[in-house]
């Protein structure tokens, strides 16, 4: 099978799964996000800006999707569970003693050595995972839901993803602008640790 035939087969299968599922959450479960090829964050967008299918607004509205849940909310070791991605985040980095700024290598180590809320498998999130918690619908200065992600700084956060055109850099996610960029790994910035996922 040549590459163009294989790609056409994958796209046809994914389109069929999308049509069957009828919602973003169901599409993720039924089709496995096309076998894990395209894992897109849910923006919560409900307004239609296009007549073409496939916009986030075509999926089940975010208002009926139970997105986040805080476990142990009155304790010092609370975690935020994302019911869409299945990832578990440190709710408040101050409680986890991870509220400082780190160079990239230090950021990796700070999450990997974290023992918090009875878990020891914390890690620095990759760029897609970190981007998935941006709140594009908020008018607040921090583009994140502060009820579930406390003490988020209005600046950039390290991801674990190296910037491959220049491996001295890594990807950053901005909770000020809701954007991604890259920077040299020696520059200090903030982190938010995660566990779970692939």
Task: Describe the secondary-structure layout.
Layout: H1 3-21, H2 24-36, E1 68-71, E2 79-82, E3 88-90, H3 104-112, H4 127-131, E4 156-162, E5 169-174, E6 179-184, E7 194-195
List keywords for this structure.
Mannose-Binding Protein A, Chain A; 198 residues; alpha+beta; 2 domains; globular; 3-stranded antiparallel beta sheet; single chain; 4-stranded antiparallel beta sheet; disordered N terminus; 23% helix
Provide a descriptive summary of the structure in words.
The protein has 198 residues and is α+β, with helices and mostly antiparallel strands. It folds into 2 domains: 3-64, no CATH class; 68-195, Mannose-Binding Protein A, Chain A. 23% of the residues lie in helices and 16% in strands. The chain has 4 helices and 7 strands, in the order ααβββααββββ. The protein has helices at 3-21, 24-36, 104-112, 127-131, and strands at residues 68-71, 79-82, 88-90, 156-162, 169-174, 179-184, 194-195. It has a 4-stranded antiparallel beta sheet, with no helix packed on it. The protein has a 3-stranded antiparallel beta sheet with strand order 4-5-6. Strand 4 and strand 5 (169-174) form a beta hairpin. Helix 1 packs antiparallel against helix 2. The radius of gyration is 18 Å and the shape is globular.
